[in-house]
Amino acid sequence: MKLNILAFAVPLFVSFMVLEYVVARRKKLPYFNLHHSIANISVGIAERLMDVWVVGLFYFVYDYIQKHYGLFHIKPNLLLWILLLLCTDFMWYWYHRLAHEINIFWAAHIVHHQSEDFNYTVSARITVLQAFIRTGFWAVLPLLGFPAPMITSILIVHGLYPFFIHTRLVGKLGILEYIFVTPSHHRVHHASNEQYLDKNYGDVFIIWDKLFGTFQKEEDNVEIKYGLTHPIKTYSFLWQHFHFLAELTYAIRRTKGGWNKCKLLFSKPDQIDPAVREIAEERFRIRQSNAPFDKPLNRYVIWQIGLTIALLFIFILFEHFIPLTQQVLISLAIMLTLINCGAIMEQKQWIYYLEFLRLLTLTIGFILVYPAVWVNILLLFAAILLVAYFDTIRVYYLQWVYHRHRSS
User: Fold this and answer.
1) Which residues lie closer than 8 Å to 283 by C-beta, 6 or more apart?
2) Averaged over 137-141, what is the pLDDT?
3) What is the DSSP track for 206-256?
4) pLDDT tier at 406 (50, 70, 90 boundaries)?
5) First-to-last C-alpha distance (Å) of the chain
6) 352 neighbors 397 (Cβ within 8 angstroms)
7) Whole-angstrom Cα distance, residue 43 to residue 112?
8) What is the DSSP letter of 31?
9) How far apart are CA 252 and CA 105, in angstroms?
10) What is the pTM of this model?
């Protein structure tokens, strides 16, 4: 039975997140905000889900380049594994640095820096768009002659390490500070304090930052402020992913001349007028609700995220045995859930329609798995009742979720 053992990364990372939360709570350290953590984990769930669909493509790209254009024919040995790790981290440094310095790359990377918390949940804020861009940089590795199995193996190790540097619980680590990227270094990288901006791009080794002049140590007398210099202040799953693309689009529209428009795509993010954010938010009606969160609403969102994580784990573990149609339906149901959770934290009224779509998706999946006649009749009868009393159910649903009467 061919199980995908990479699925166990999901409970592993979640366990460390819970452990960090427990330790921080016992020490009475305010390092976690419930709704920020949910938003962070939602982004991470989406990235893990999309990896199921695209990771094979990345392997194919590396394999094709190495076999057709590789400069050398490299066979694994200890020295070359170490060399590959160094090359991988070197390419990461330049991808990461350019992702902060070029607007079109920043549009994908900005999601990672949106959280105003700094803990293990922030490490989950990676998008599949970043993965595509990184692959373009790492394509140098098979061009040098490193085979795809070596590259994908080292990327797994290289991808594990950064998770553990997203924490405020670990202080400075002595002599290791001179060689490796530590939590102290990475806290600086995530800071929005002016003296810390655009520093410490390394992923595993800090030597590249020291070599190329982008190193900054964490000062003990400076209180770090995390997040963007211009926070987005929304839990919307979709807006977190695409707000900067919308802002960039509006900024390009306002820029005169084709050459100037093109330059803006490849200029630094600080060349974008901050006022464009308000224009984009107004256009897409992005407003964070000021209504208070209550415990029942929080529980509802937490349960959805918890069940989604469990579903994601099962999906990845058994992906080789799940038919394509069911994979699509599961992926759609998970994405609808993530969008729904963000909208509930924003206390939007249209969540009912997402619930309807999610229910429809799960129903189709259930019919495909268990196509009994009596089940189809029962589901058809339930669908007729739902359509007949659509608006009535909607009112009761919104009252149940938000625990108060809200006008449509």
Assistant:
1) 246, 250
2) 94
3) SHHHHHHT---PPPTT----BS-SS------HHHHHHHHHHHHHHHHHHS-
4) very low
5) 51
6) yes
7) 9
8) -
9) 15
10) 0.91
